[in-house]
Amino acid sequence: MNKQTVPDGSAQAFEFDPSYGTNFTLVDGGANDSGMLEPGTYSVTEVNIPAGWDLTSATCDDGSDPGAIVLDSRETVTCTFTNTQRGYILVDKVTDPSGATTSFDFALTGGPSALNQNFSLTDADPPRDSGPIPAGSGHSVTETVPSGWDLTGATCSDGSDPSAIVLAPDETVTCTFNNTQRATMVIEKQVQHGGENDAFIFAIPNLLAGTYTSTEDDPAPGFDLTAITCDDGGSATPSTGDLGARTATFQLEQGERVTCTFTNTLQTGTIQVCKDIVPDDTSQWDFALTGPTPGTRDDLEDGGCHTFSDLVPGFYNLSETSQAGYATTIDCGAKGSDGDNDISFILDPGEDVTCTFTNTRHATLVIEKQTDADECSTTSTFDLPNLPPGSYPATEDDPAPGFDLAAITCDDGDSATPSTWDVGTRTATFNLDPAETVKCTFTNSLVAAPTGESSDSVGVGQDTYTTGETVYATGIGFVPNTNVDIYIVGDLAWSDGMAIPPDVSSDGMNTVLTDGAGDFGPVNVWPPPLTVGEFDMVFDANQNGTYDTIIDAVDDPNHPGFTARVPAPPVPVGGVIVPVDKLGVVASWMGVVALAGLAALTIALVRRRRA
Question: What are the two backbone dihedrals, phi and then psi, of residue 80, each rounded to the nearest 5 degrees?
Answer without folding.
Answer: -115, 125
